[in-house]
UniProtKB/TrEMBL annotation:
<dbReference type="InterPro" id="IPR003593">
    <property type="entry name" value="AAA+_ATPase"/>
</dbReference>
<dbReference type="GO" id="GO:0016887">
    <property type="term" value="F:ATP hydrolysis activity"/>
</dbReference>
<feature type="region of interest" description="Disordered">
    <location>
        <begin position="588"/>
        <end position="622"/>
    </location>
</feature>
<feature type="transmembrane region" description="Helical">
    <location>
        <begin position="282"/>
        <end position="305"/>
    </location>
</feature>
<feature type="domain" description="ABC transmembrane type-1">
    <location>
        <begin position="34"/>
        <end position="313"/>
    </location>
</feature>
<dbReference type="InterPro" id="IPR017871">
    <property type="entry name" value="ABC_transporter-like_CS"/>
</dbReference>
<keyword id="KW-0067">ATP-binding</keyword>
<feature type="transmembrane region" description="Helical">
    <location>
        <begin position="777"/>
        <end position="801"/>
    </location>
</feature>
<feature type="transmembrane region" description="Helical">
    <location>
        <begin position="667"/>
        <end position="689"/>
    </location>
</feature>
<feature type="domain" description="ABC transporter">
    <location>
        <begin position="349"/>
        <end position="584"/>
    </location>
</feature>
<feature type="transmembrane region" description="Helical">
    <location>
        <begin position="66"/>
        <end position="85"/>
    </location>
</feature>
<keyword id="KW-0547">Nucleotide-binding</keyword>
<keyword id="KW-1003">Cell membrane</keyword>
<dbReference type="GO" id="GO:0034040">
    <property type="term" value="F:ATPase-coupled lipid transmembrane transporter activity"/>
</dbReference>
<keyword id="KW-1133">Transmembrane helix</keyword>
<dbReference type="InterPro" id="IPR036640">
    <property type="entry name" value="ABC1_TM_sf"/>
</dbReference>
<feature type="transmembrane region" description="Helical">
    <location>
        <begin position="701"/>
        <end position="721"/>
    </location>
</feature>
Length: 1237
């Protein structure tokens, strides 16, 4: 199937080029940079001088005279110097490359930490992580090669000068291939760059989708849509396969031709040089110098061809990295490096005709907003989800700069003056707070200096002190990745404590207590009232009377406009609009455009809806004209993986070498045949040179001409074999990688959440991307080089022994020395490389988390400490990598030293006695021995270059197979039995559960019946275990005590797919997948027609809301639903659950982002659904819980009481206390009841 050119998005070229920027980064450590260049040049000088010394010995041998031991001493000194120089140069180069990689990684995060709110909205966070994982490795690989490449270029230049000095005629012949090489490079470079950029973009897209799929695993599992997600992943993996195969086709037309040019020059030089030797115009030694130089040049050109390909990769990678870094040049108004002013004083807030346009279509989010908050006053902001109230809080905090109007903070330390936007002491607490991995204390302090009194006050006022009583390690308890070990209410309490710690002048609470139980919320509100009395200015947004009762004045927002404002008591009593919002109106609304208006973006970040191109941003850049032109001229993508590769990817278990190669064995055989021809051709050329010298000495010009023709034929075969090698090996490697990716993704989709929760999502993403990329990098570029160069070394050694049997003891001693060194070398790298890989996983997981926590870091001005923490982890990885590369740096120069020693042994008889190595062999055989031994230098250097990649691939494959060895969740539990017909009663039979073996029980001795047609509301204090009940019902986890029975059958024995076939879940943080609204609604039942989806939207009362979106049901929701507001995401998630028509519906705070009237319309729609449906809902809004048939009250993991609303009120237990607290707060308007407008 042919695919046309892909749309290109890349940053416009401005300022210094990518190469200049990388060189500047590389040369920042001037001492090491200069040292690396000098050492590379010194190594080139030694390589160039050695053949000249050999020339004098061979010429002496031809004349039957000894040149003395001095020449051998010079060779020995050169050998030792070569060892020292290569070791030092490799160590220095690796230090420089890993340092630049570390610096770029840290700079990448630091740049993202400076992003403005708008740039964060455009940021595709998964792609940022991809650039850190993949692109930085590509750049590091090029930088490690840079000194060798520079030395290789100089090496060729000096070689040419020496050859001109020795024989201008032969030098001109050799020089003739350089213009051809230049033309080949120029013609191929741009096309390879464009194709490589598209290939890497496809890889980044795959990484982004992988991260999204990991985050959405709970949704995928409950709706049994693993196969659908796998098909989407498979389609993207096919796209990547095709893009990489196109790059391989272009490389196949480039690299073998470039490598064949020096071989062609060698053959021509052998032909002409043989005739000149025959005529006595040049000596045998000069002939050997030319042949040695050109053989060396073959290795150099092979190195430079790899550098050209690596440059194309690194150029696109560097462009993508710099696009993210340059995005931080326009700092956020809430830049973490900007100091707060007006600390310690009272601040007022004044917004004058503020307007804000956001998104790719510059839609108005705020329209002429004018409000004033006096110092020490509390302003309540009410509005439906998406009305603009959350964005208003972000504007006050400095995340967005208004498009028009002014935001001022009046007052200050002296009681007068103003503070600029972004510099005022304003702290925002969002509804869904972000916590970093670490302890509770770490998350409260966020790098700030510890103050005991402030800390204790913050813990008390946010009710965290009561939370710590239940924590195993007090405030040293780890919260898990993004606070995953805590409930939503517990996260909100920690976020409140974090905000109150510094006693900010202005505190913005964006429905920051929505997940708290009423008793805890009442306690927090009492503390906030005390803070108001102490002069703190507050802006609180909310959808409930209990929240708005905190305010002195209330502003009602609709469609980005303030449509009503006044004294809180007056509006709560008399405003029909406000009473409708808080659920006290008498009519039942539908979900209209204002209910979940599309103008308010998700503050976590958005992209252009539906993937439409938008304004230039770090995630979706404007196309660059030149790259677009190159991409348009590329040949279409035509390659597809075979069906056998798909089948291989669908198998289970670790992937062995035999199993991986079985589907591609015919192509693998073809690759080996091509490699064989290529190696034989390379090994045959020195033998041809030997024969040319022999025939020249005999005066046989005809034989020299025939040998010249044979050499040309060998070169042609080598060129064709090289083309076939590149095509066949890349085909084999890409097919194997396609199967690995499919198998790994499919397996992760089937892992139990109990395992996934133990592994940081960034760490899991690393295994699925970085480890696969390390395997890919080796298979794509290193494997071919390793095989070819190993075969060259082995074949050359075999030919030497066959040519001169008496030379085998020398080779045996050299091999023994190499084996001893290899044993010590392997012991070092076997410890270092796995350790480095583990550290890299930690670094990538940390970056993944910190990129998602940038907005929180900006709010608390702690981007500096956050970046410093990350830099420390990255430095640990850098240091471990350098330890491993030091071993590489000494081992392979040691191998070169043994070759130098063997070469000295060859020349010893000639230098001392003027005799060849073995009797009966003349100077031609000695020359061939020298050429074969000289052939080994650059293959060994190439092996050293790719060895690091090979070790990373080996460790990566071990980690991949380790993940593939984890048992999937369908294999956990006992023998499967058939699910009871119709579902039956679900019974918690004395259920006990804890998340970790060392953790306390989250549920203990729970007994509860859920009958068909029954709705059960689970209520209780924050962290009581409510969400755990939902997770157990979804069978994300299995209880350690008791059992959950369905129709009398232990649920653990029912196959998961059968159990989940009629189950749906709506979590508190609704997860949506990239795609349209319709695709997300139909995710639970993909066979649902468009008419069925439209009917469900209409029955749900959401038609007006959907119609308000550009494109309606076809509107693109962005990654993880980021193009929608929180309320919109919850409505779509609820529709997804309803369309699947489940028998068991699980709602975990599924309407917390909606106002009460919108929630009421949803509850009514749910009641009109499946009459036999069992509904279990977790609710902190007791008005919602009161509508359930049964209310289950949970505290500290135990079920305290069950019953209907009225019965529980009469019993006077915990539920009655919770209800009284909510009712009391709802009836009290605090100071606002008597406030003035």
């Amino acid at each position: 199937m042919k695919r046309g050119p892909r749309a290109v998005s890349t940053p416009p070229r401005q300022g210094p080029s990518w190469m200049v920027r990388l060189i500047a980064s590389w040369a920042a450590d001037r001492r090491r940079a200069v040292g690396a260049v000098v050492l590379a040049l010194a190594g080139a000088g030694i390589d160039l001088a050695t053949p000249l010394v050999i020339r004098s010995v061979v010429d002496g041998l031809s004349a039957g005279r000894a040149v003395g031991i001095g020449a051998l001493v010079m060779l020995a000194v050169a050998a030792v110097l070569r060892f020292v120089v290569q070791f030092t140069q490799r160590t220095t180069a690796s230090r420089l490359a890993t340092r630049v990689q570390h610096d770029l990684r840290v700079t990448l995060l630091a740049a993202v930490c400076r992003y403005s709110g708008e740039r964060q909205d455009a940021l595709r966070r998964g792609e940022v992580v991809s650039r850190s994982i993949t692109d930085l490795q590509v750049v590091q690989s090029l930088l490690a090669l840079a000194p060798q490449a520079a030395a290789a270029v100089l090496h060729v230049a000096i070689q040419m000068a020496i050859m001109f000095f020795l024989s201008p005629v032969l030098a001109l012949v050799a020089l003739g291939t350089i213009p051809l090489a230049g033309v080949l490079v120029v013609r191929s470079r741009r096309r390879i760059y464009a194709a490589t950029w598209l290939s890497q973009q496809a890889a980044a897209d795959l990484t982004s989708f992988t991260g999204e799929a990991i985050a959405g695993l709970p949704v995928t599992k409950v709706f049994r849509r693993e196969e659908l997600t796998e098909r989407r992943y498979g389609g993207m993996a096919r796209e990547l396969f095709g893009q990489r195969q196109r790059v391989a086709r272009l490389n196949a037309a480039f690299s073998p031709g470039l490598t064949a040019l020096p071989q062609f020059a060698l053959v021509v030089v052998m032909g002409i040089g043989g005739l000149m030797t025959l005529r006595g115009e040049i000596s045998v030694g000069t002939f050997i110098v030319f042949a040695t130089y050109l053989l060396t040049m073959t290795g150099l050109v092979r190195l430079l061809a790899g550098v050209v390909s690596a440059t194309a990769l690194a150029r696109s990678s560097a462009d993508r990295i710099h696009a993210v870094i340059d995005g931080g040049d326009q700092a956020s108004a809430a830049d973490g490096d900007t100091p707060r002013t007006a600390r310690g004083g009272r601040l007022g807030v004044l917004l004058s005709d503020v307007e804000l346009s956001l998104g790719p279509q510059s839609r108005n989010v705020l329209r002429g907003v004018s409000v004033e908050v006096a110092p020490g006053e509390c302003l309540g902001v009410a509005g439906r989800a998406g009305s603009g109230k959350s964005v208003l809080g972000l504007v006050l905090q400095g995340q967005y700069r208004p498009s028009a109007g002014r935001v001022e903070f009046t007052g200050g330390t002296g009681g007068s003056g103003t503070a600029r936007l972004g510099e005022a002491d304003v702290v925002l607490v969002p509804e869904e707070p972000f916590l970093f991995s670490g302890t509770i204390r770490d998350n409260i302090l966020l790098g700030r200096e510890f103050d005991g009194d402030s800390y204790a006050s913050a813990l008390t006022d946010a009710a965290v002190d009561a939370l710590l009583e239940r924590m195993p390690d007090d405030d040293r308890t780890h919260v898990g990745e993004s606070g995953a070990r805590l409930s939503g209410g517990e996260r909100q309490r920690i976020a409140l404590a974090r905000a109150l710690y510094d006693a900010p002048a202005v505190l913005v609470l964006d429905d920051a207590t929505s997940a708290l139980d009423t008793l805890t919320e009442a306690r927090v509100f009492d503390a906030l009232r005390r803070r108001l009395g102490q002069g703190c200015t507050m802006v609180v947004t909310g959808r409930r009377r209990t929240v708005l009762a905190l305010a002195d004045r209330i502003a009602v927002v609709e469609g980005g406009r303030v449509v009503e404002q006044g004294a809180a008591g007056h509006l709560l009593r008399d405003s029909v609009r406000l009473k409708t919002l808080i659920g006290e109106a008498t009519h039942t609304p539908t979900l209209g455009a204002d209910d979940v208006a599309s103008e308010e973006p998700d503050p976590r970040g958005t992209q252009s809806p539906g993937g439409a191109p938008g304004r230039a941003g770090p995630g979706e850049q404007d196309p660059a004209e030149a790259l677009t032109r190159y991409a348009t001229a590329l040949p279409p993508v035509v390659d597809e993986p075979a069906d056998a590769d798909v089948d291989n990817g669908r198998r289970d278990g670790p992937l062995g070498i035999r199993e991986a190669l079985r589907p591609v064995r015919s192509v693998a055989v073809a690759a080996l045949v091509c490699i064989g021809f290529e190696v034989v051709a390379a090994v045959a050329l020195p033998t041809v040179a030997r024969s040319v010298l022999g025939r020249s000495a005999a005066g046989d010009a005809t034989a020299v001409g025939l040998l010249f023709t044979l050499g040309l034929a060998i070169t042609a075969v080598s060129w064709i074999a090289g083309w076939g090698t590149v095509r066949a090996t890349t085909r084999v490697c890409d097919r194997v990688l396609f199967a690995v990716r499919l198998r790994l993704f499919r397996h992760v989709q089937r892992l139990p959440l109990s395992y996934v929760d133990q592994v940081r999502s960034g760490g899991l993403l690393t295994r699925m991307t970085a480890d696969v990329d390390s395997l890919s990098a080796f298979l794509q570029t290193g494997l071919l080089s390793l095989i070819v160069n190993l075969l060259l070394v082995l074949c050359a050694a075999v030919v030497v022994v066959l040519m001169v049997p008496g030379f085998w003891p020398v080779l045996a001693v050299a091999a023994a020395a190499v084996l001893v060194g290899a044993a010590a070398f392997q012991r070092i790298v076997s410890r270092s490389y796995p350790r480095a890989r583990e550290l890299l996983t930690a670094v990538n997981a940390d970056l993944h988390e910190k990129v998602h926590g940038v907005r929180t870091a900006q709010i608390f001005r702690c981007t500096g400490p956050i970046v410093a923490q990350f830099a420390k982890k990255s430095a640990a990885y850098r240091d471990e990598r350098q330890r491993g590369q030091r071993a590489v740096a000494w081992f392979f120069p040691l191998v070169a030293l043994t070759i130098d020693t063997a070469l000295i042994c060859v020349l010893l008889p000639a230098a001392v006695h003027g005799l060849p190595w073995a009797a009966g062999h003349g100077s031609a055989t000695t020359a061939a021995l020298i050429l074969y031994l000289s052939m080994l230098y650059y293959p060994i250097q190439q092996i050293a270059t790719v060895y690091d990649s090979a070790q990373q691939a080996r460790v990566g494959l071990r980690r991949i197979n380790g993940l593939l060895s984890e048992p999937p969740e369908e294999l956990l539990g006992g023998a499967p039995v058939r699910a009871p017909s119709g579902g039956g009663v679900i019974r918690f039979d004395r259920v006990g559960f804890k998340y970790r073996d060392d953790a306390p029980y989250s549920l203990l001795d729970v007994v509860l019946d859920i009958r068909p047609g029954m709705s059960v509301a689970v209520v209780g204090p924050t962290g009581a275990g409510k969400s755990t009940i939902i997770k157990l019902l979804a069978r994300f986890y299995q209880p350690q005590q008791g059992a959950i029975r369905v129709g009398g059958v232990d649920a653990a024995t029912i196959p998961l797919r059968d159990y989940r076939r009629r189950t749906a879940i709506v979590p508190q943080e609704a997860h949506l997948f990239s795609g349209s609204v319709a695709e997300n609604i139909g995710f639970g039942r993909p066979e649902a027609s468009a008419a069925e989806i439209t009917d469900a939207v209409r029955a749900f009362g959401a038609s007006e809301m959907i119609d308000s979106l550009p494109g309606g049901l076809d509107y693109g929701v962005g990654p993880r639903g980021s193009a929608l507001s929180a309320g919109q995401r919850q409505v779509v998630a609820l529709l997804r659950a309803i369309v699947s028509d489940p028998d068991l519906l699980l709602l975990d705070e599924a309407t917390c982002a909606l106002d009460l009237e919108s929630e009421r319309s949803i509850v009514n729609a749910l009641r009109d659904g499946n009459g036999a449906r069992k509904t279990v809902l977790v609710a902190h809004r007791l008005a919602t819980a009161a509508q359930a048939d049964v209310i289950a009250v949970v505290e500290r993991g135990r079920l305290l009481e069950t019953g209907g609303h009225e019965a529980l009120l009469r019993s006077g237990g915990l539920y009655a206390d919770l209800w009284a607290a909510s009712d009391q707060d709802g009836a009290t308007s605090n100071r606002g009841s008597g406030g003035t407008a």
